[in-house]
Design a protein that fits this description.
heterodimer, A: about 325 residues, mainly alpha, 4 strands, B: about 120 residues, alpha+beta, three-stranded antiparallel beta sheet
Chain lengths: ~325, ~120
Amino acid sequence: MIAALLLMTYAVVAGAAGARLLRGGWSTRSPQWAVLGWQALSTSVLLAVLLAAVSLAVPFLPLRGPVAALIGAHEVTVVQHYETPLGPWPGLASLALVLGCAALLAASAAGDLARTRAVRRMQREALRLVATSHPEGFWVVEHRTPLAYCLPGGDRAVVLSSAALGLLTDRERELVLAHEHRHLRARHDLALAWSGALARTFPRTALFAEAHRRTAVLLEMAADDAAAVRPEDRRVLARALVALGTGMRPEATLAASDTAAVERVRRLVASPRPPRRGTGALAAAVAATAVVVPLVLALAPALEAAARECCAVPALTLGQSRVDQ
Amino acid sequence: MRQLGQLEAAVMQHLWALGAPASVREVLDGLAPERPLAYTTVMTVLDNLHSKGLVRREKRGRAYAYVAATSREEHTAALIDDVLAESDDRTAALMHVVGRLSADDAARLLEALHERADGS
């Protein structure tokens, strides 16, 4: 039972503390590392909750055999360390919960994937029919609405509408293309797919909702940084984003802005503050730790038992009668 | 499959350019200058396009005459509508370069841009 308590405590504390950390100013100076942070935190909290439920079920499942073998303890010890005073019901209930959640997540992700694939397939077919190929390696679609977007995946593509092409200067176009290519090369759509799957499967979990919202913005910032490396390019890209952002739905002039768009352009306009050295290494280390901690906590009681056992055994064999367990 | 896709596109472009119903032979002749194609290939492509609902056909004597089901503009408009409908709530099937900016916010941001340009 200790494992379950440790894991739930970890989930709550790490979730709150981690989110607080990730909201800091450093996240917009190193957006790609902040994305890793949000992904690791969400995954870690999910893992902790699932393992908490699994650990309650360990005494009643064939699981106790492999767990015992894994850490070199006796099965009886494992049962002792994971059982609860309430008998089998918490274990069985939590097992049902884990399986239910896992099934929900899998179904949700599968549904997302199917829908994404269908949308991209239809888009590509339509592009093949009506779009023309531009020598700089993107598609142009005849339309009066300024649009620029990319289609991630195996058959990747970048698309600009004719209106967008007319609106942007040469340099602006180059930066917009670089921004989209960054999304495609770094497979940002995968990070969004994971955060989206969690947010949609567990809609009342504030952490997953916030992680998804921030991941989307931070990925855009990361692509902005990759495209506009020189300080003067940041202003050029900012101008391009404003031009495209206002053109998108010309009839909705009184509509509210997409807050991410405003945040991004403000960031590009402001003087860039370079990220502190070592941010990446630190973020990667913390992320890796975050994902491993739940596993360690889940196995902690059994590991502790195994450690004690392996110290106790020699005393028994020193001329003492064997006590049958 | 890739090849067929490009051929399908070429046939549709030709039908749109023609603007009038055309038989397999007429489409074949229209495409012939750029591509050496077999009659059966063009027939298969038009058949595929018909099952996809992209072309309609009517009997003309013993053969069919094919015409595009929707205009190129309508097709393009449908594509753009799909793109505009893809919002953040759903999956990131495609990624826009930027979201919507209201006229007010845009004005303020451009002002800030000019200030920076002058100041720095």
